[in-house]
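In full, the data.
>
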Amino acid sequence: MGFRENLKAELSYSGILVKELAAKTGLKKHTIDNYLSVRGRMPAADVAVRIAKVLGVSVEYLITGQDSSETKTAAHFSPEIRHMARVIEKLNPDYQKIALSLVESIKKHEDLQSNS
């Protein structure tokens, strides 16, 4: 995937609207719409940095869909994992514990299945 597809995916998973991204980056909505269009162009490096910062990802991730950083911070996880974390973060602490228990149970079940 390229910049356009990765930008679309990040906007979708973050729940940020194009107009919000424009406001937070200081860009015009029309400019971001151009990056998202089929004929979209790649932004200048400084603009890509501003977009990546607002979305909480690296510029490398926006361009390539991958990140070569060895340390995984939240920004380096897949959009799905970051989305899951944002949803869980909004739960009250009791429900957060339940969500964690559920994920741990699923992982144990998966481990048992792979060892069979």
Q: What stands out?
A: Helices lie at 3-14, 18-25, 29-36, 45-55, 59-64, 79-89, 93-115. The chain is about 70% helix and 0% strand. The mean pLDDT is 86.
